[in-house]
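Q: Hand in one record:
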Amino acid sequence: MAAAPEPRRSPLDGTGVRASAVLAVMFDDADGLATVVLTRRAQHLRSHRGEVSFPGGGHESHDADLWATALRESHEEVGLDPTTVEFLGGIDHLRTVSGRSYIVPYVACVDGPPHLTADPDEVERILLVPLAELLAEGVYREEHWGLPGMERPIMFFEIEGDTVWGATAAMLRNLLELVLGLQFADDPQPPDRR
């Protein structure tokens, strides 16, 4: 079920920038609500401790490709069985603020609620978030950070008990735009997905 997707090269491939991959896994919960799997990173991690993110991590030399990275990391972090995962597509690649790495997000689904177990070395808590919660009024906001003339948008989703922000929020927004055909109010034009 976890057939490898057609590779989609990032414009940053081969530039000496470190690649990582994340997996946005969706399923219908017991009430039939479309739900996405997120994690809260463990507090003892060196970077991004306690932040909400998708399962994922850095590409390793033994990974066949970035899809394999996303599957491996999801299995390691939350125990997701890669044989139950159906590839749906990819969303916009992101480059980190430091510019030393880029993230390739994949979208997949599983049939019904998956059996997941957090690896305490990496994950403090698994969050199963209905897409409807992300769409509720007042949950999404955008701020502009940086010096005047050099500001950039930072996205936030205020979900129950947590704040999703930064790259993960940008990926969530992109996921909602593509899966549900949404256009957020601050978008004057739908983004170019070519």
About this structure: Confidence is low (pLDDT under 50) at residues 187-194.
